[in-house]
Amino acid sequence: MFGYDENNCDILELNRCDDDEYRCMNGMCIPDEYFLDGQYDCLDWSDEIQFNNDEHCY
How many CB atoms within 10 Å of residue 42? Predict the structure, then answer.
C-alpha cells in the first residue's frame, strides 16, 4: 500500500550467491539441492520454473 514491501528489494537484485547456491530470479539465494526439487523455495518460485511434470500436460 505504501511501498513498504519494496524496501531493500535492490539488495536482493544485486547480491551474488555462493558457488553452492542457486540464485533465484529475484536475487534470493537458496542451496543448490533445493533447485528443481519439486517444492518452491524462492519467494518468486523461480527455482521450479523448469520443473516439468508430464502428469499435468494436456
Answer: 20
Confidence of residue 45 (pLDDT cuts 50, 70, 90): very high
Number of residues in the chain: 58
Flag whether pLDDT at 58 surpasses 70.
Answer: no
Domain range for residue 36? 4-49
Closest by CA position to 9, among listed 31, 27, 29, 30: 27
With 0.85 as the threshold, say if the pTM is over it: no
> What does the alpha-carbon distance between residue 12 and residue 6 come to, in Å, rounded to a whole number?
11
CATH code, domain with 36: 4.10.400.10
Q: Give 7-36 pLDDT, tens digit per residue.
A: 766 665 677 899 999 999 888 999 999 999
